[in-house]
Design goal:
Layout lengths: L3 E4 L2 E5 L10 E6 L5 E4 L7 H10 L7 E5 L5 H4 L2 H8 L2 E5 L3 H5 L2 H11 L3 H5 L10 E4 L4 E4 L2 E7 L8 E5 L2 E5 L23 H13 L4 E4 L3 E3 L2 H24 L4 H18 L4 H10 L2 H15 L6
Parallel strand pairs: 4-5, 5-6, 6-7, 11-12
Antiparallel strand pairs: 1-2, 2-3, 3-4, 8-9, 9-10, 10-11, 12-13
Helix pairs in contact: 7-8, 8-9, 8-11, 9-10, 9-11
This protein binds zinc ion.
């Protein structure tokens, strides 16, 4: 039985992504009439666990009416196509991401470049969302969904098409507020390729601070009760890791050396905060060091080539 946590009116379903507990969450927002919306879908490989979680929360999967995704990465929207086809749900996504859900071929190709032979095991089969069910967002909307109002905030930085959703003081942050696993003492940057942009990300964090949420709901993973402190810490942590990669690049380090550098930094932080070895290992899977290097290196090369000379 998957773990399902009630958070006020909402439920947090643990999709147990590839057997890792409490790393990839999906939020269920109920309506008064038994229908419900999902915020995020998790990956396609986690679908059976997600559907069991929906039932455990007391809902029939057939009552799924709407899906809102913060961005199209496969841990957030990988199951959107299957769910949309199976239950006819509408899918809300930023307008830049929408074409890639309608035709996921480029999304799949890019994931295959990153994950290679692990693609199927990690992400399963990604299928297209029918175009008639797609609802493209620009940011700034106040959506009426199942009798609820959700505000859409455009929050680029992790990805150029990232949005957050604000529902009655609860802010669904996707990856904009980074990763904070339950029981972990540290906030971990989420800076994979290919679109990390720290300046836009910082502006997004300022926009999130400005709406003064009461709590954050992180896809990775769960509720954070001190939003201001957390959002400010994300800004600082992103900068710290990015500066470490910049220092390596300026020293002429190759990718292997950069990976050693960022692994040493990440593991030292965890050890200093008292994390046990299994948590240190889990963090190396959920925010992979090689991927962090590719993402941040690309950021510096693309946006600040002058800093590398
Ligand atoms: Zn993610």
């Amino acid at each position: 039985m998957p773990s399902v946590q009630q958070l006020g009116d909402l439920y947090l379903i643990d999709t147990e992504h590839v057997g890792r507990l409490k790393t990839v969450g999906v939020f269920l927002l109920p309506a008064a009439d038994g229908r419900f919306a999902l915020i995020e879908t998790g990956s396609a490989v986690s679908l059976p666990i997600l559907e069991a979680g929906i039932q455990q929360a007391g809902f029939a999967p057939e009552a799924l009416a709407a899906i809102l995704v913060t961005h199209i990465h496969l841990d957030h929207a990988g199951a959107a196509g299957v769910l949309a086809r199976r239950y006819g749900a509408e899918v809300y996504v930023h307008q830049v991401g929408a074409p890639h859900l309608a035709d996921p071929s480029r999304l799949i190709a890019s994931a295959e470049r990153i994950y290679g032979p692990d693609m199927a095991r990690l992400w399963g089969e990604v299928v297209a969302v029918p175009e008639t069910q797609l609802r493209a967002l620009a940011g700034g909307e106040r959506l009426r969904i199942l009798g609820h109002e959700l505000r859409v905030l455009y929050t680029p930085g992790h990805a150029s098409h990232h949005v957050c959703f604000l529902f009655e003081g609860a802010l669904f942050t996707g990856d904009a507020a980074a990763i904070k696993l339950p029981g972990s003492p540290v906030i971990r940057p989420a800076t994979p390729p290919p679109e990390v942009d720290l300046e836009r990300w910082e502006a997004s964090l300022d926009a999130l601070l400005a709406v003064a949420p009461e709590r954050l709901l992180l896809t990775h993973f769960g509720a954070v009760s001190e939003p201001q402190e957390h959002l400010l810490a994300v800004k600082e942590r992103n900068r710290l890791w990015a500066e470490a990669i910049l220092a390596g690049l300026q020293a002429g380090e190759d990718d292997a050396a950069l990976i050693r550098r960022i692994t040493a930094l990440g593991e030292a932080e965890l050890r200093a905060a008292g994390a046990p070895p299994e948590l240190i290992a889990l963090h190396s899977e959920t925010s992979s060091y090689p991927m962090t290097v590719v993402g941040l290196k690309r950021y510096w090369l693309k946006h600040h080539p002058e800093r590398l000379s």
